[in-house]
């Protein structure tokens, strides 16, 4: 009888331990936890910062999407200049055109869009045994270059596919962002709002309210200081690919323990209100993927002066006018999107 009781207690203890462990894992990696921003400021002003205490150990949640990769407005023209978009206040925007970035051979225009605030030319290239998609973007003002969070909510384990987040925010063009939710640190400033002020010990990209790119060490400046000095977007992933026209990565540099050749996502600065979004395929029989050095070299040949690497691998996705342009790969499957925390996008105008 005593042996039976001990056995029964052992079983109960095992069940209790398993249940607790299961809940802890679900709470850490699955159960959504919406959080409040540290500071909200759409206009640079004096504010009072509050400490944010969080534990964001979100594993990459992979929510498969059955949409297939397509291209939009296929055309054989390869030298189409970007149309300058007019500001509402009649100020002239950047006069730089797609013709300025024709140094890379093999590009084919596969889509175009323009309105009063935005001009986009989408091209497909073949380089490094990979398909690479480049969106050349000219905007009237940096406010057109936006970011969005999954479910429009900041927090742990809150994810959605790039295409779904793009649709919810009426994005004309979107790429995945830095997947802030996969890490518990790294500055998060989006559309002028500060959500996380914990240093990630890395170089972050600051897109200022004047539309310029700046690279900062999170160990040398606080998120509050960046916000007060005019940061509009702060993305924390990296590394920096190009700075002042010079390649900033070595031939053997890589993100953590990632493979040397991967799908990639990056954003680059060409000049006043003139940007490029770049996504490359990889991990498929058709596309090997790019190293960081290859990505930096490719973007330099486009004429980019400053470029920053965003989350890649299975996260790398480009959406244009509602269609998935590239060939996302998740869990070894192609044409499957990974759910992510956030996107960088261009909104439509009138």
Could you describe the largest sheet, including whether it forms a barrel?
8 strands, antiparallel
* Assembly state of the chains shown: single chain
The helix content is 10-25%
H/E series: HEEEEEEEEHEEEEEHEEEEEHEEEEEEE
Estimated structural class: alpha+beta
Radius of gyration: 22 Å
**Inertia-based shape:** globular
pLDDT < 50 stretches:
38-103
How many domains, as an integer?
1
Instruction: Count the beta strands.
Output: 25
Beta strand %:
25-35%
Name the average pLDDT: 80
Instruction: Please tally the helical runs, counting DSSP H or I stretches of 4 or more residues.
Output: 4
Kindly report the spatial arrangement of strands forming the biggest sheet. 3-4-5-18-17-19-15-16
Q: What's the end-to-end separation, in Å? A: 81 Å
Q: In terms of topology, how is this protein built?
A:
Elements: H1 2-29, E1 33-34, E2 39-40, E3 108-114, E4 118-127, E5 130-139, E6 145-149, E7 155-156, E8 160-161, H2 162-168, E9 171-176, E10 188-190, E11 193-196, E12 203-208, E13 213-217, H3 223-228, E14 231-235, E15 240-243, E16 246-247, E17 264-271, E18 274-280, H4 292-301, E19 306-309, E20 318-320, E21 323-324, E22 329-330, E23 333-334, E24 339-340, E25 342-347
Antiparallel strand pairs: 1-7, 2-11, 3-4, 4-5, 5-18, 6-25, 8-24, 9-20, 9-25, 10-11, 12-13, 12-14, 15-16, 15-19, 17-18, 17-19, 20-21, 22-23
Core attributes:
five-stranded antiparallel beta sheet; alpha+beta; 350 residues; eight-stranded antiparallel beta sheet
